[in-house]
């Protein structure tokens, strides 16, 4: 290595220890916290408030979805635009989707194992299927839920990945959910 390069090394190391304002930073000194205690407290309070607002929006979505399903109305979050803000729209949508599903009721003689309770009103046609022909598995709420998520992912340009929605459906009905997801994602 040439002596010139050896002389440049300490200068380069010192130049690397300068903040964007040109102030020297001692790399061995303890670094100050990025936020003051007051700023950190403010950030924590805002984070907690945002989580609380999302929880309220989710619960309101469940309630509105359940009410729409019981009234036989079509699935439409836009009908309840006044119940969420742009920041809480996703939480409300998830709650609405969950509330619109039929409730689980134990089957008689099945030992109390929850099974989907089917609503008495006819199931709506699923988008993407020709009118007049019923969608496959139209009476299966987990298939329908998978279909909704698959359609949403396809339209938004996301890759096909039903496992990305794990935790949003009952794991006992994974096959039904995935079948609906794949059918919707691959439909044109």
Helix fraction?
40-55%
Regions with little confidence, pLDDT below 50 for 5+ residues: 117-135
Q: Treating each run of at least 4 consecutive H or I residues as one helix, how many helices?
A: 5
In N-to-C order, the SSE pattern is HHHEEHH
Q: Largest sheet at a glance?
A: 2 strands, antiparallel
Distance between the termini: 64 Å
| Total beta-strand segments | 2
Nearest-integer average pLDDT:
76
Strand content: under 5%
What does this entry look like structurally?
With 188 residues, the chain is mainly α. It contains 5 helices and 2 strands, in the order αααββαα. The longest helix has 35 residues, at 37-71.
What is the structure about, briefly put?
The longest helix has 35 residues, at 37-71. A hairpin with a 7-residue loop joins β1 (104-106) and β2.
Structure characteristics:
single chain; 188 residues; mainly alpha; two-stranded antiparallel ribbon; 5 helices; 2 strands; 48% helix
Write the layout of secondary structure elements.
Elements: H1 3-16, H2 37-71, H3 89-100, E1 104-106, E2 114-116, H4 141-156, H5 174-186
Antiparallel strand pairs: 1-2
Helix pairs in contact: 2-3, 4-5
């Amino acid at each position: 290595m040439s002596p010139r390069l050896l002389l440049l090394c300490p200068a380069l190391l010192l130049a690397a220890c300068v903040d964007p304002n040109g102030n020297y930073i001692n790399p061995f000194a303890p670094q100050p916290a990025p936020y003051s205690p007051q700023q950190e407290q403010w950030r924590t309070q805002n984070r907690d408030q945002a989580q609380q607002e999302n929880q309220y929006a989710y619960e309101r979505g469940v309630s509105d979805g359940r009410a729409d399903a019981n009234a036989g109305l079509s699935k439409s979050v836009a009908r309840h635009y006044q119940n969420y803000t742009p920041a809480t729209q996703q939480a409300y949508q998830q709650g609405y989707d969950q509330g619109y599903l039929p409730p689980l009721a134990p089957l008689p003689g099945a030992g109390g194992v929850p099974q989907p309770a089917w609503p008495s009103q006819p199931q709506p046609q699923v988008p993407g299927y020709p009118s007049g022909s019923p969608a496959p598995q139209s009476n299966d709420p987990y298939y329908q839920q998978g279909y909704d998520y698959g359609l949403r992912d396809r339209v938004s340009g996301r890759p096909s990945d039903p496992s990305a929605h794990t935790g949003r459906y009952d794991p006992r009905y994974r096959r039904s959910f995935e079948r609906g997801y794949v059918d919707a994602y691959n439909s044109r």
